[in-house]
């Protein structure tokens, strides 16, 4: 049985985002703001969210994924991070993302290249930083086949100006990645990915590894299209492997993801301190080749 209370984030090993070393198990901040951050649902318990962030750092988490558009009616993920963790530990890497935006009513918009600076500065203000460690260009679904050169070029200029240290891309195709890399170095790709991912996604993960680029899946626990969280239903295969390890299905999904390559990171999010410890502990799980194959083919 895995003892989740004693496993540090370093158990899964480390990877480098440019010159920044992070433990492969990180933390996603989206769920800190409440039950439904994207439809202005019930706001979170502020003190509990702050405790979760501080506990994550105590467990060795030094990679936090956030965004200015992660907010509910009373809570902002960036401001919770600032309140809980500033002055920031020297090794803490905060990754944010731009292109999507939301106004105070929660209505969505997509920034023009010229508006990206304002989004970067909004993140800087909320986080209380003078530069951002990593900024991902989050590509809208409508651009799946279009060019991202103008927007990525605008971010590259902000990197040259010293506002951003490293650049990444999110929700992208291999073509987008190649286009971005022709403009400026890319340290990470953040895409939906997990057990049951199609062959093309598996190939993209391998390609990132060959290029030395971190692959950072979102929805690794809940599956694609699962902004609302895990559904509560689980496959028999995942349940069987979980029983064999004395682990939860979510831990098995995270362990499977991490074993897809040393460049694959995890950023599970939660506002529950117990779930946080379980997620971090998943980095210590080692699945057998037979289990990996079973999970890959039997989702």
UniProtKB/TrEMBL annotation:
UniProt domain NADP-dependent oxidoreductase: residue ranges: 25-294
Protein name (Swiss-Prot/TrEMBL): Aryl-alcohol dehydrogenase-like predicted oxidoreductase
InterPro entries per UniProt: AKR, NAD(P)_OxRdtase_dom_sf, NADP_OxRdtase_dom
Pfam families cross-referenced by the UniProt entry: Aldo_ket_red
Top-level taxon of origin: Bacteria
PANTHER family the record matches: ALDEHYDE REDUCTASE, OXIDOREDUCTASE, ALDO/KETO REDUCTASE FAMILY PROTEIN
The organism of origin for this protein: Nonomuraea roseoviolacea subsp. carminata
């Amino acid at each position: 049985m895995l003892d989740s209370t004693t496993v540090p984030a370093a158990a899964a090993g480390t990877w480098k985002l440019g010159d920044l070393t992070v433990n492969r198990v990180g933390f996603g901040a989206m769920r800190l703001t409440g039950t439904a951050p994207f439809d202005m649902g019930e706001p979170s318990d502020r003190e509990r969210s702050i405790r979760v962030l501080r506990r994550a750092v105590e467990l060795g988490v030094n990679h936090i994924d956030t965004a200015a558009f992660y907010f509910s009616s009373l809570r902002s993920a960036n401001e919770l991070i600032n309140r809980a963790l500033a002055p920031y530990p020297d090794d803490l890497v905060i990754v944010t993302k731009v292109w999507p935006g939301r106004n105070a009513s929660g209505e969505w918009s997509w920034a023009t290249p010229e508006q990206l600076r304002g989004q970067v500065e909004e993140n800087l203000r909320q986080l209380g930083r003078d530069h951002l460690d990593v900024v991902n260009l989050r590509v809208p679904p409508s651009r799946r086949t279009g060019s991202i050169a103008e927007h990525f070029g605008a971010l590259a200029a902000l990197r040259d100006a010293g506002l951003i240290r490293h650049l990444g891309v999110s929700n992208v195709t291999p073509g987008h990645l190649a286009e971005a890399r022709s403009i400026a170095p890319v340290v990470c790709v953040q895409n939906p990915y997990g057990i049951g991912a199609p062959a093309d996604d598996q190939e993209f993960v391998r390609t990132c590894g060959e290029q030395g680029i971190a692959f950072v899946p979102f929805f690794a626990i809940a599956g694609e299209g699962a902004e609302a969280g895990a559904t509560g239903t689980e496959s028999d295969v995942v349940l069987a492997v979980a029983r064999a390890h004395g682990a939860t299905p979510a831990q098995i999904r995270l362990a499977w993801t991490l074993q897809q390559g040393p460049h694959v990171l995890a950023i599970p999010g939660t506002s529950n301190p117990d779930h946080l410890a379980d997620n971090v502990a998943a980095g210590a799980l080692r699945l057998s080749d037979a289990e990996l194959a079973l999970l890959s083919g039997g989702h």
